[in-house]
Design a protein that fits this description.
about 250 residues; alpha+beta; Deoxyribonuclease I, Chain A; six-stranded mixed sheet; globular; Endonuclease/Exonuclease/phosphatase family protein; endonuclease; Endo/exonu/phosph_ase_sf; nuclease; hydrolase
């Protein structure tokens, strides 16, 4: 039986009514979230009817000094098994407050202030992982981002080898066609059709319309993705949806 999967960068608590409307409309079997506030876990558990698994990445001053932000996974009224949180930079024991710097007139997050983690689990025999790679100024491929991507690739490959296959979803902050994206795509299949040229929702993103396909559905050859589509009006990033099954 194929799994209906949705992956969304929800931009913390800014768009919760929009996100809730999407979930009620699409009814995914598995929901993968990036930039999720720990304080909103109960909100999503009430929507989905299951237990949400959360891995923190940073503290964000815009959400209160004690609020953690990270990635999460939750199944609809079902149990995720073999849940694992593998940090490839930083650790769960040393979560810091995010800091920013100015570059070329733009405010950018300091990647060293943000931990990076791959949260993975199994649902109905299928292995799925979610992550959020570090952001870079203007979508450039930096040496630090490529180093992080290499660590992520090795973790994902190990998960795929152990489970047989893997779907890796999330916000990779690496536009398609640039070096970091190409590094990931050299090891996993890019599951988003080429006619999609951006996963940024210009109506909600602070930068407006920018042609960056930065959110991804990467998978190993033993998995098949169907009905891949992007939905606008959900968050500052488009919501990604697909049906996942074994090939």
């Amino acid at each position: 039986m194929p799994l209906n999967i949705a992956s969304i960068n929800i931009e913390r608590s800014r768009h919760l009514p929009r996100v809730a409307a999407f979930i009620k409309r699409e009814r995914p079997d598995l929901l993968c979230l990036q930039e999720l506030c720990e304080s909103d876990i109960g909100f999503f558990e009430a929507l989905m009817g299951g237990r949400l698994h959360f891995a923190p990445m940073m503290r964000h001053p815009g959400e209160g000094s004690t609020d953690l932000v990270g990635v999460g996974m939750i199944a609809r009224a079902d149990t995720l098994t073999d849940v694992a949180a593998d940090y490839y930079s930083g650790s769960a024991q040393d979560i810091r407050e995010i800091t920013f710097f100015d570059t070329q007139g733009h405010r950018a997050a300091d990647p060293l202030s943000i931990a990076e983690v791959m949260l993975s689990a199994t649902l109905q025999g299928l292995r799925i992982a979610v992550t959020h790679l570090n952001v870079t100024p203007l979508g450039t491929s930096t040496a630090y981002q490529r180093e992080s991507a290499g660590k992520l690739i090795r973790l994902a490959q190990a998960q795929a080898q152990q489970a047989g296959d893997l779907l890796l979803v999330g916000d990779f902050n690496a536009p398609r066609g640039r070096a970091t994206f190409d590094l990931i795509a050299a090891h996993f299949i890019d599951g988003i059709p080429a006619h999609h040229t951006s996963s940024i929702d210009g109506s909600l993103h602070r930068a407006g319309d920018i042609p960056f396909m930065v959110d991804g559905l990467f998978h190993t050859p033993g998995y098949r993705l169907e009905n891949v589509h992007l939905s606008t009006g959900v968050s500052d990033h488009c919501a990604l949806s697909c049906r996942l099954s074994k090939a």
